[in-house]
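Margin note from the TA: students keep mixing up input and output lines. Inputs are the sequences; the output is the structure of the whole complex. Example:
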Amino acid sequence: MKIVVPVKQVAALDDEFELLDDGSGVDPDFLELDLNEWDAFSLEAALQLREATGDGEVVVVTVGDDDADEALRGCLARGADRALRIWDESLDGADPLAVARVLAAGVERERPDLVLCGVQSSDAVNGATGVALAGYLQMPHVAVVKQLDFDVAQSAATVKRELEGGLVEVLRVRTPALLTIQTGINEPRYANLRAIKQAREKPLEVSSPGELGLDADLVAAAAGSRRRELKHPERGEGAEMIDGSPSEVAARIVEIVRERMSG
Amino acid sequence: MSAGDVLVVAETRRGELREVSRELIGAGLAIKAASGGRLVVAVLDHEPGRFVQSLSVDGVDELLLVPTPNEHFEAHVSQRALEELIDAEQAGLVVLAYTIDSLGFGPAVAAARRLGFASDVTSLTWADGPAVTRGAYGDKLVAELEFPGKDCTLVMLRAGTFEPAPEGSQATATRTVELALDGVAETEHLGFEEVADTGVDITKAPFLLSIGRGVEDKDDVPRFEALAERFGATLSVSRPLVDAGWMPSARQVGQSGKTVKPRVYLAFGISGAVQHLAGMRTAETIIAVNTDPEAPIFGVAHYGAVADLFEVADELEQALE
């Protein structure tokens, strides 16, 4: 059994961030990089399936520059068997459809039984890359899975799909399939020091779209959008800020609550 | 059809039209006014005819009724149906909701048909083609996107953001579109489950004290339960506390939890992810305490304090003694 887990090294803004003068993006000095929160859950789901079946391989794949190696090493330390990073300069700022197109070339090569993506990334929140990838792979797919029961012998999975308002749909999908995994489905493990050391010995392959047989024009044609500008949101009226010490803040909160609740 | 034509895809679930559908039509009407094209609304459902009345809106040129073989939403059926509608209708803009169901097939259609694409769209305009804005870096920034070289662009609109279309004064013209959808489904529906009832209904509470990721330790949760009780509030939570197994999902505010509208919503350590805001933005008074001055929750809160939530909680406990 083989499971491919596409992951992303996400960027969070630190408190003092600044935009680049040309409005094209955030000054990279102010970005804090980390493995996407959702991908910790999809990786854990893959590792648990491998452990339950007693054999198989978990391969993590990302589209990213060499900063993303840290996220991949983290995945290897948690227990993934191999990692593949795909990159060339033309992918800088790629939209979810272009990323999915490139991932598809990496995933196709692996011929997996399951592809487990995170529902979304915490920085871009498109919620689109996984299902777009399924579109390119022409693979059955289920989005926003909060419970997964994979029957290897039957080549099928029974899953629970999280809908709005606390509603859940139970459904069965034949595999190979692509699932996007929701947070809370499991409890992601941490890597211990020994595993972190061992991860340095595990294979981390670096490739490019060209090496995977992807024409640069094909990737460019796949892109769904171009970013014109990045800017600060118009806050509208925004909140009236309560200044002062914690005790002054608390006193004002009590005052507001009593006023609003008594009216 | 022409580049200025708009195809809106309405959403249904368990025999009901989902509220967001009227917001999509409202956005479609605004684009039609700017582009001068036609506005067509498609409804993909087992019995689409039952939605004719609720989807009739003045200004909609045609309602496409697309019968599906499956009783409930099925992603692959919706995917195939939309691909065929796009091929047949040749609209320049396709409008879907940024919801769990539509996210289950919209991106796959955009990939397969090489469409322009944007999700979680918060504003949509037209000037020789569509342009959108959407959040970036967890809604701390806003990105403007354009779609150069695309004959057709699929946008997925954030629910609760666009003005819903008004009720129609007469029935919109309908057209039934029969598509070959048998055998397209890849999943089998086994049933629905509702969230377990724990005896607490946060949607009925007039005063919610809500805690989020800022509460980093399970051992601190009882303290906020006690504070809520002392304050006369009901405790609710954001998603991370439910994911961690610290609180039952019946207490969760947000898209996948409950939508609440209390008189006062007092949020501690909740940054305000879009899915959370969707569940509480209509509260009458929102007070937010967070250490991050850029936290998106301050964008919807009426009162805010940039402060350590534990220090404020200490002081509240004393003030309420």
